[in-house]
Amino acid sequence: MTKTNLKPAAGYLVIEPKKKGSSTESGIYLQPSNDKPQEGTVLAIGQAYLTDFGIKKDSGDLKTGDVVIYREWGGKEYKENGVDLLLMKFDDIMATIKN
């Protein structure tokens, strides 16, 4: 897991997307597709915030280090020290992958 110096604003997360491309058990490299990854690791979590209706929204039970599935076009891309990161709203997280 990459360390980040970013501290997300209220209602946002910093996520490191899963790398594209992989290899099979026999070592054959598989080309990455043009699809954006939809899985990544949570690196930082912003504070809760109040909606326009006064409802408190927080990150739920998310913790740094959790692997999550997020909306395909969610988030703002950002590069820090050569590492691709995403700044994403709490609402763009669809699921947590439990080991």
TrEMBL record:
Alphabetized UniProt keyword annotations: Chaperone
Gene Ontology terms, MF aspect: ATP binding; metal ion binding; protein folding chaperone; protein-folding chaperone binding; unfolded protein binding
Stretches for region Disordered: 18-38
Compositionally biased tracts (Polar residues): 23-35
Record keyword Ribonucleoprotein present: no
Repeat in keyword set: no
Self-association and partners: Heptamer of 7 subunits arranged in a ring.
Protein known as: 10 kDa chaperonin
Pfam families to which the protein is assigned, alphabetical: Cpn10 (PF00166)
Top-level lineage group: Bacteria
PANTHER family the UniProt entry points to: 10 KDA HEAT SHOCK PROTEIN, 20 KDA CHAPERONIN, CHLOROPLASTIC
Biological function: Together with the chaperonin GroEL, plays an essential role in assisting protein folding. The GroEL-GroES system forms a nano-cage that allows encapsulation of the non-native substrate proteins and provides a physical environment optimized to promote and accelerate protein folding. GroES binds to the apical surface of the GroEL ring, thereby capping the opening of the GroEL channel.
Family listed: Belongs to the GroES chaperonin family.
